[in-house]
Write a structure and sequence with these properties.
- The chain is of the alpha/beta class.
- Among the domains are: about 60 residues, no CATH class; about 110 residues, Lambda Exonuclease, Chain A, CATH 3.90.320.10.
- About 50% of the residues lie in helices and about 20% in strands.
- Strands 1, 2, 3, 4, 5 and 6 form a six-stranded mixed sheet that branches.
- The longest helix has 20 residues.
- The protein is globular and about 55 Å long.
Length: about 260
Amino acid sequence: MGLLKDNHVYSYSQLTSFDECPYGFYLQRIEGLPQKSNGFAEQGSLIHDLIDRWAKGELKKEDLVPEYIRRYPEEVVTQFPRLLAAKGYVEKTYDAGLRYFETFDEFADLHIIGTETKFRIELCGRPFVGIVDMVAEDKNTGELIILDHKSKSLRSFQKSEDEMYRQQLIYAQYVHEQYDRWPDLMMFNLFKEDGLRMSRPFTMDDYQAAMSWADNIMNKIESYEMLDWLSEKPEPDFFCQNLCNMRDHCRNGQPVWRKR
């Protein structure tokens, strides 16, 4: 297991974190250093929670707008990147969330089976945990759907589309174990795009490819020794400076290190 504890439990975010930057994974998961959030994640968490509370009957449709307005300044507190802020992004992203709830369609075409469901499974022989945002059936076709709420713009989603669906493919194992059937569709609710839904059919070939990717990443993580971990990215990028949870602990996350 290398530097990991024998009882280590994986998640999809861990796999993508290692894939993005092994050093960041090391700082967070092995050293256990404090994490730093970002404005994108904070707004996403707020909207996820409001949708979840609506789906559970704790909020009515008419409650969503006032709750969003009330909670936004209390919970979206981390600064957005300066370049985006200068272009009015902060106001635009707030307005996008507000517009989403003002025109909320209540997933009228879907029968919601589960919402924000935490699970634990054995994935490639290792313990693995996750949260499925929503499991639903199409009221017209009966298709079983895994649905994830995303804060990405359509352009950003399309740039990382395969990675987005890979998470759904891995979560499909839980759906199969829970409902004794594989999902028919993997779907994303892009709330910054007025609730635009993007979907892709589930196939066993894609599922097996996602499993192979996960197994490969976990094998790498478990084979790494100390010197393997201590290799940061050669140059900082947008992720390092603005999104990485470990940016306060890595020189790539500090503006002073931009000039070398």
